[in-house]
Amino acid sequence: MNQITIIGKNIAKNFKEGDTVVQALKNINLEVQQKEMIMLMGPSGSGKTTLLSIIGGILNQDSGECLVLDKPINSLPNAEKTKFRGGNIGFMFQYFNLVPTLTSIENTAIPLILNGVQRDEAFKKAEELLAEMGLDRQRYQVPSNLSGGEQQRVAIARACIHKPKIILCDEPTSFLDRERGKKIMELMKKIQEENSCTIIVVTHDPRILGFADRILEIEDGELKVKEHEDAAEKLLKS
Amino acid sequence: MYRIALKMLVEDKAKYIGMILSLSFSAVILTQQAAIFIGLMKRTYGNITDTPQADIWVMDPNVKYIDDITPLRDTDLFRVRSVPGVEWAVPFFKGTIRARQPETGKFQTCVYIGVDSATFIGAPHTMLEGRVEDLRQPDAIIVNVVGAQDKLAYDQGPGEPKIPLQVGDVIELNYRRAKVVGICDVIRSFQSNPVIYTTYTQAIANTPFEERLLSFILVKSDGRMSAHGLCEKITRETGFSAYTKEEFKSKTIDYYMRYTGIPINFGIAVLLGLLVGAAIAGQIFYNFTTDNLKYSALFSIMGASRGLLARMTLLQATWLGIIGWGIGSGASALLGYLARNSELSYNLPWWLFLGIGLTMMLICYGASLISIRRIFNIELATIFKQ
């Protein structure tokens, strides 16, 4: 039986905008299992990214509890939280966020270096991973010389090179065409299976829902319990 | 991560070059203003530097600096010689004299120095032409090269090159004949007037009669006590002021610092250079870190501690500071080299380089501390929006 990697209990988060308080998340309860791929859907401003940030330990909830790998991630001291995050969670961003002055290898190797791996060894592993992802010839290129799909593959390599137990993705396919988006998701699925990691994907993209084990919808800060038994069926309907 | 930090800095070429240039520019401003100031101050006590044989300068108690001369009696020399601890004491004349070019009739005020006729202590030690001993010839003078080539040179008229004063030439000093027997290289005088050396006896003879004509007494300690101790003893036993070379230099500088506007003018220029340099370099470095803020957030998300981010930023600041300082110092040194034969007083002691280096590092670290504060306060969650 799979372990539960993420537990959210009554998570709430408010943001102040001038004099008004916006309730971004209202009593979110969720459980995510190991080796599960979750798609988090919902309209803009519904709170998807806020929930992702809280799970990733980069935003504190106002109330409730968020346990990641049995740790109350947002109650950890800052230094410990940073270390925990660096070792256990990989991130992928909508805008890739590759460092523009660094090559693909350097961008990919950063999480390993931050986890204490020697530079040469980190670069060797990054080179191998990029080769696996079909980026062998692009390994010494800076992001500006890469296509959108290539940049996203480098971002995936960076998110998974240190074999994190959880990967959090924010709109990973939004800038990619159908074919490239599909390839990216296939790659993600492969990583999920090989590394037995949990993947949470925030997306608006209905084309990729077929890859999900579960689909969760957030609307107005509330998690609508629409745990589709058959995500592929949902995809076909959409 | 430190190599990555440096690569992020260096590979952002436009900003990198901008930061290096601005830091180099501020280093040049700071260095050259300070170098001119130091050079100018060194000129004020050039005679002391050019007289290395003497440990101690003895003078009337009213003397405030080397050009402020209250003469002593010739017999005072014997009083000083009688102080135990004095190995030797010799007379030294320093004054001004009007020189006249016989061919052109042009007058020029010169610094006039008379050194001990027997020992030549106080005479220039870098002779370009002739020998110090040639001062024993009748009416002999030695002229400094700067004066010989410019203010005492024979002026052929507008547009024509000046003919430098040469060994064998004759000029007039207070309407008396003076024959050039040597050309020497000494520190320029503060006013850049020519410096003329002769014997003490000759100098006295060429100067209008006064009861007292002895400007200074140069003293060598016999080594049984410190120079400073001997100064105190001379003062105690003769009533004259006695200073070591370094003390007399300091006294001279103190006078110029206190009674002329030079330090204020240069101080303002140096301060402006500092402010402009700090503002430009600080602003550009701050902009660089601000532009890279999202990558700092990214590294933090990926596990970089605050300490590591701070060290990466400090490393970038150190790199910039050292490169900017290096280029700026090199440019300043080149400027000094190019100006070596001009009237510009320019002196670059090692401690000035070091001081400017520390100042540059302070500018960079100041800017980086502001940047680090910004990095520490960044909202990590904003990375999802960028």
Relevant terms:
heterodimer; A: 238 residues; alpha/beta; Rossmann fold; 6-stranded mixed β-sheet; 4-stranded antiparallel β-sheet; 10 strands; 27% strand; B: 386 residues; alpha+beta; 2 domains; 12 helices
Question: What is the secondary structure topology, with strand pairs?
Answer:
The complex is a heterodimer of chains A (238) and B (386).
Chain A: E1 4-17, E2 20-33, E3 37-41, H1 48-55, E4 63-68, E5 71-72, H2 78-88, E6 89-92, H3 104-114, H4 119-132, H5 148-160, E7 166-170, H6 178-195, E8 198-202, E9 214-219, E10 222-224, H7 231-237
Helix pairs in contact in A: 3-4, 3-5, 5-6
Chain B: H1 2-11, H2 13-44, H3 46-49, E1 56-59, H4 76-81, E2 86-100, E3 107-115, E4 127-129, E5 140-144, H5 145-149, E6 170-173, E7 176-184, E8 195-199, H6 200-206, E9 216-221, H7 227-238, E10 241-244, H8 245-259, H9 262-291, H10 293-301, H11 306-338, H12 350-376
Parallel strand pairs in B: 3-8, 5-7
Antiparallel strand pairs in B: 1-9, 1-10, 2-3, 2-6, 2-9, 4-7, 5-8, 6-7
Helix pairs in contact in B: 1-11, 2-9, 2-11, 2-12, 9-12, 11-12
Query: Termini of chain B, distance in Å?
Result: 23 Å
| Spatial arrangement of strands, main beta sheet of chain B | 2-3-8-5-7-6
Largest contact between chains: A-B, 31 and 25 residues
Provide the β-strand percentage band of chain B.
15-25%
Overall mean pLDDT of chain A stands at: 83
Q: How many distinct beta strands of chain A? A: 10
**Helical content class of chain B:** 40-55%
Number of domains of chain B: 2
Order of helices and strands of chain A: EEEHEEHEHHHEHEEEH
Class by SSE composition of chain A: alpha/beta
Output the structural class of chain B: alpha+beta
Distance from first to last alpha carbon of chain A? 32 Å
How much is the average pLDDT of chain B? Answer: 85
Q: How much is the radius of gyration of chain B in Å?
A: 29 Å
The quaternary organization reads as heterodimer
Q: Low-confidence parts of chain B, pLDDT < 50 over ≥5 residues? A: none
Major sheet size, sense and barrel closure of chain B: 6 strands, mixed, barrel
Number of beta-strand segments of chain B: 10
